[in-house]
């Protein structure tokens, strides 16, 4: 029997996944959430907020590339991009790979998570916070959206899951998506929880957004550290990433991305938007 400390992550109220912890790097109770930075035996360095793994050094590239690139590549020339949440700085890193991007504004509510990221998650942000195109705002994303006079080519929503009493709860509502639509010229994307463990929540997010935007598509991929499929919802009145061919995506990556991608290419794109029948049936039930 190994003498590990365990991170117990509840996937649903009646099942959990246990991750062996080899080292606790930092821990803090912030005004918004409990932030924990650990080394996991299987996945290495990991950020955990309120008991939920946000990302691990081993496979964060899957989640962050899947979140950012389908939307930004579907837009003809994204220059000004807003990120809501995105604590680790890896979403910012992926946005900055787009040669057309001139301004990337990231709004996260929790300065402690940002301090953790700057201090311990260099492998995630890779200096993105110091890029002259980046601007970091510490504020509630909903408040920022309501008050800003600016518009953005794309809005990328990278928040913690919509759990009761979490700081992100209100940022999954129809009212919020209406405000986001007001300030986004071409489209938005949000992480949308797990089709494996919370298919109903995934479907609610997808259908809530469908009431606000004309073209809405769901994308999924497997993230090992999340122990299941992860879902994303891309929305716009103008463009639909799901309609792009493998060849078009590969061409756009070649023309528009600086640096390398490990997960996303034309072939991966097709798999992300090939949703299995049983999931499609739930999404289309409403
Ligand atoms: N990959 C993650 C996942 O699987 O859920 C999400 C990544 S990121 C760490 C989530 C960020 O959302 C955190 O840094 C948190 O502080 C931020 N956040 C939560 N509620 C927020 C709000 N109302 N406004 C802005 N940022 C918020």
UniProtKB/TrEMBL annotation:
Pfam families in alphabetical order: Spermine_synt_N, Spermine_synth
Domain of life where this protein originates: Archaea
Matches recorded under SUPFAM superfamilies: S-adenosyl-L-methionine-dependent methyltransferases
Pathway: Amine and polyamine biosynthesis; spermidine biosynthesis; spermidine from putrescine: step 1/1
UniProt keyword Transferase, yes or no: yes
Domain spans labelled PABS: 4-237
One record GO biological process: spermidine biosynthetic process
Binding sites annotated in the UniProt record for S-methyl-5'-thioadenosine: 33, 108, 140-141, 167
Keywords, comma-separated and alphabetical: Cytoplasm, Polyamine biosynthesis, Spermidine biosynthesis, Transferase
One function term, GO molecular function aspect: spermidine synthase activity
EC number: 2.5.1.16
Record-listed spermidine binding positions: 64, 88
First-level EC class: transferase
Active-site residues, record numbering mapped to chain: 158
Catalytic reaction list: S-adenosyl 3-(methylsulfanyl)propylamine + putrescine = S-methyl-5'-thioadenosine + spermidine + H(+); S-adenosyl 3-(methylsulfanyl)propylamine + spermidine = thermospermine + S-methyl-5'-thioadenosine + H(+)
Transmembrane segments: none
Subunit-structure text: Homodimer or homotetramer.
Entry's family note: Belongs to the spermidine/spermine synthase family.
Function: Catalyzes the irreversible transfer of a propylamine group from the amino donor S-adenosylmethioninamine (decarboxy-AdoMet) to putrescine (1,4-diaminobutane) to yield spermidine.
Name recorded for this polypeptide: Polyamine aminopropyltransferase
Gene transcribed to yield this protein: speE
């Amino acid at each position: 029997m190994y003498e590990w400390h365990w991170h117990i992550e509840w996937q649903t109220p009646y099942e959990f996944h246990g991750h062996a912890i080899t080292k606790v790097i930092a821990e803090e109770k912030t005004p918004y959430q409990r932030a924990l930075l650990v080394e996991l035996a299987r996945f290495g360095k990991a950020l955990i907020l309120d008991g939920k793994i946000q990302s691990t050094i081993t496979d964060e590239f899957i989640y962050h590339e899947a979140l950012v690139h389908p939307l930004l590549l579907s837009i003809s020339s994204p220059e000004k991009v807003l990120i809501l949440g995105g604590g680790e700085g890896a979403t910012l890193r992926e946005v900055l790979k787009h040669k057309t991007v001139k301004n990337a504004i990231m709004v996260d509510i929790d300065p402690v998570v940002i301090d953790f990221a700057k201090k311990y998650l260099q492998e995630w942000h890779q200096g993105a916070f110091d890029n002259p195109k980046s601007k970091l705002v510490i504020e509630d994303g909903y408040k920022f959206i309501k008050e800003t006079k600016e518009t953005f080519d794309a809005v990328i929503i990278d928040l913690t899951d919509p759990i009761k009493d979490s700081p992100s709860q209100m940022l999954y509502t129809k009212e919020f998506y209406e405000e986001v639509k007001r300030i986004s010229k071409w489209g938005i994307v949000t992480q949308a929880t797990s089709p494996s463990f919370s298919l109903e929540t995934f479907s609610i997010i997808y259908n809530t957004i469908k009431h606000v935007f004309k073209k809405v598509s769901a994308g999924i991929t497997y993230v090992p550290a999340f122990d299941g499929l992860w879902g994303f919802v891309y929305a716009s009145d103008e463009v639909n990433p799901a309609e792009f061919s493998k060849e078009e995506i590969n061409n756009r990556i070649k023309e528009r991305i600086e640096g390398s991608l490990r997960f996303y290419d034309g072939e991966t794109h097709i798999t992300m938007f090939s949703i299995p029948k049983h999931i499609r049936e739930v999404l289309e039930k409403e």
